[in-house]
Design a protein that fits this description.
The chain is mainly beta. It has a single domain, classed as Jelly Rolls, CATH 2.60.120. Helices cover 0% and strands 38% of the residues. It has no helices and eleven strands. The protein has strands spanning 20-21, 27-32, 43-49, 58-60, 65-71, 73-78, 84-89, 93-96, 102-106, 113-119, 128-130. A six-stranded antiparallel sheet has the order 1-2-3-10-5-8, with no helix packed on it. The protein starts with 19 loop residues before the first strand and ends in a 17-residue tail after the last strand.
Length: 147
């Protein structure tokens, strides 16, 4: 049996120097993406909300997202009118389908909330659609704060 295969691109280690503010108004430590590596279909980053912060309402064009909670927790709202919600914390995984409007609120006023975030888009910041019409604090009174 012949086990030789071919591939494109190099194995690439990425060590970002600092966080930046992403288009969806979260702090981001951009790791693997189409800028930092030869990736064509994948991005991997760490996203964080500082104490009391929220993201803006947004969705991702044509791409799936997955999150894994590594610190703190957020109250996550989704749907056409952000009518659905759940709590996402350390050790939780979350799947977000393409085009799904969503917003996250850090549930703490004292600690960060952070997540490993993967997306099926190597150029994910180019395909974030911000939804200012849903950014009217409609979810704020429903947030389950921990402190």
């Amino acid at each position: 049996m012949d086990r030789r295969i071919t591939w494109e691109g190099d194995v690439t280690r990425v060590r970002p120097e600092k966080e930046v503010r992403a288009k969806q108004d979260v702090n981001a430590l951009f790791g693997v993406n189409g800028v930092s590596t030869p990736s064509k279909h994948l991005s991997l980053l760490v996203t964080a909300l500082r104490p009391g912060e929220k993201s803006n309402a947004h969705y991702h064009l044509e791409h799936e997202s997955a999150l894994y909670g590594i610190k703190g927790s957020v109250h996550f709202f989704w749907g056409a009118e952000l009518e659905h919600d759940l709590i996402l914390g350390e050790g939780d995984f979350l799947y977000i389908p393409p085009f799904c409007p969503h917003v996250s609120y850090n549930r703490s006023h004292t600690i960060d909330a952070a997540f490993v975030t993967a997306r099926t888009d190597a150029f994910e910041q180019e395909r974030v659609v911000v939804l200012p019409e849903l950014d009217d604090d409609r979810c704020k009174s429903r947030v389950s704060y921990v402190d």
